[in-house]
Every structure is written in structure tokens, then in C-alpha cells.
Amino acid sequence: MTDLGKTRRAATTALPATVLLAAGVVLALAPAAHADAPAGAPAPVAAADLAKARDAVRSPAVLDRLGHFFARKGVPPTQQLTIGAADEARAATAETPRLAGDTVPVYTLDAAFVAGTPGAAVAKAEFTASKVVAADGQTASVWTVRQGDDWRVVNIASGGDEGDYAAKAAADGGTAFREPQINAWYALRDGRVLPLDDEARRSVGADGVALAAYQQLVHQRYGDKLPGSAYDRAGEGGGYQVAAAAPEPAGHGALLPAATAGAALGATALVGAAAVLRRRTGARRG
Fold it and tell me: What is the C-alpha to C-alpha distance for residues 268 and 276, in angstroms, rounded to an integer?
């Protein structure tokens, strides 16, 4: 299985249900009705599902795990700490994790959009994220997916990118989505794809591009890497780099920034297959 692209976060820790994702469980998020949704907008996740996902994060077992995550400063349980188990337990209790902000769906670039399927949304829901804050100010994002009739926590990642970018996009009337192959976060607003982080600015420029131009851009990048392609059958994977987009000329909507020759990415990221947990490196920008 290939990964979902580069990430910037300090650390991740997988909860037990993660093994189901690694085995290829599809992330099933129920879309809400969206008859009046703008062209290209992803289907929203029902409020009832978001509430259930949030309830899963509130469970005593998850809050206890979060306390230990914060006590360990994001260091995975497989790595040794300089403090003992008793001190870690006391620190975990003192962290008193609390939810902050909304539980949000995390939308990821959709393979159908990349392929140019008529009417396809730019992205689809992959999981939900809830931002949690510790007593000492540390933050984490708790990832939740629906499995059958239940919602299960599958990952804890340091920082709060998912909720932060969702709020930033919503403040201007847009919807946040991610292109994980290059670690880019965008806002879809008024038929344009606008950058939310440095990677996105390098991808589409500071002013963004029209949705049609973005579709052609990602088709150029990934169109030969979709399911069933030779790339997919070969099981290739890796990172991807792009040059910055030139300014979009007036009256045109199909400007394509050049991609680095020979760059590769994982096709499974485009079909919403299981999330692969990654160690986060560096601090969030954007």
C-alpha cells in the first residue's frame, strides 16, 4: 500500500482500530443532502455522523490515551522516555485533555475528479478530525472513521491542521480539502481553488486557479496513476514535487504548472483507500 503523501506533524500514534485501516478498510462517511451545493463542492457529512464521531473522542479510554500522548509529548509508545511509568501516568492525568472547536470532515482529492468524470466533486470525505487541547497548551487532532454502525478513533496526530484549515476556509465561505500527495491544503470558494498553506501556494500560486484549471493540473499530475493504470499495477509510490503556478491570465482557466519530471505518488491516495499513519515532521505552516 502506498502512502497519502508527505506530512508536517510532530508525531502520530495509532489506536487499535488502525490495524483495520492498514488492512484496507474503506472509510465510509455518509454524505448529507446537498442539492444546492456549488459545482465541484464535496458532499458534506451529516451532522448526526459528526456528533457520533465526536462522542467517540469523548470516551474515557480515548481521553486516557490522549493524556498519555500529551504526557509523552507525542513520543510513540515504542520509544523510551526519560521518565518512568508512574511519572507518565501522573503527567497524563494532569494534562486533562479537552475538545476545542468543531469535529470536521476531512476532504481529500477524489480520483473521479482527477479522471475528469462529469459532475465529480473535487474531493470526498476521508475521515473526521477533532481538535483536542492539553492543560499545558499542546494540541492534537483525533481522527475518526465509521466502521459499520460505530465510529472509531484510529489515530492521534500532533497539532490541529485539519480543524484549523477547515475553520480558515469556512470563515471566507469556502470548503477546505487536501491534496495529500504534495501535502497541500486548499479552499474551494466561488469556483476557484485557493491556497491555504505553503505547499498549495507553490502548487497553484498565491491567487489560486479556477476549478477547471485545477482539474487539468491534477489530471496532468496523477491521470496516469489512477486505479488500473500501469503505475497502479506496478505498485509504485513515493513523493511528488511541483513548480509554482504562473499567474492565471485573464479569460483563461486552464493554466498548468509544470511537474517535476519522474516524480511519483501513490494511486491508493486517489481512491480513498485506507489512511496510512505517518510520523509528522516539522511545524505547521500557512
Answer: 10
End-to-end Cα distance, the chain:
29
**Cα gap 237→260, rounded to integer Å:** 15
Contacts of 270 (CB under 8 A, 6+ apart): 109, 110, 111, 114, 222, 225, 226, 227
pLDDT digit string (tens) for 137-178? Answer: 999 999 999 988 899 999 999 999 999 999 999 999 999 999
Q: 202-232 pLDDT, tens per residue?
A: 999 999 999 999 999 999 998 887 766 565 5
Predicted model pTM = 0.73
Instruction: Give the C-alpha separation, 127 to 144, whole Å.
Output: 6
For the chain, domain boundaries: 12-271
Amino acid at 62: V
CB-CB neighbours of 153 under 10 Å: 24
Closest CA to 221 of 190, 194, 184: 184
Scanning the structure block, which residue is given the C-alpha cell 448529507? 32
Burial letters for 116-148: b for 16+ Cβ neighbours within 10 Å, e otherwise? Answer: eeeebbbbbbbbbbbbbbbeeebbbbbbbbbbe
Q: What angle do CA 35, 41, 45 make, to 5 degrees?
A: 70
What span, in angstroms and rounded, lies between the C-alpha atoms of 129 and 102?
9
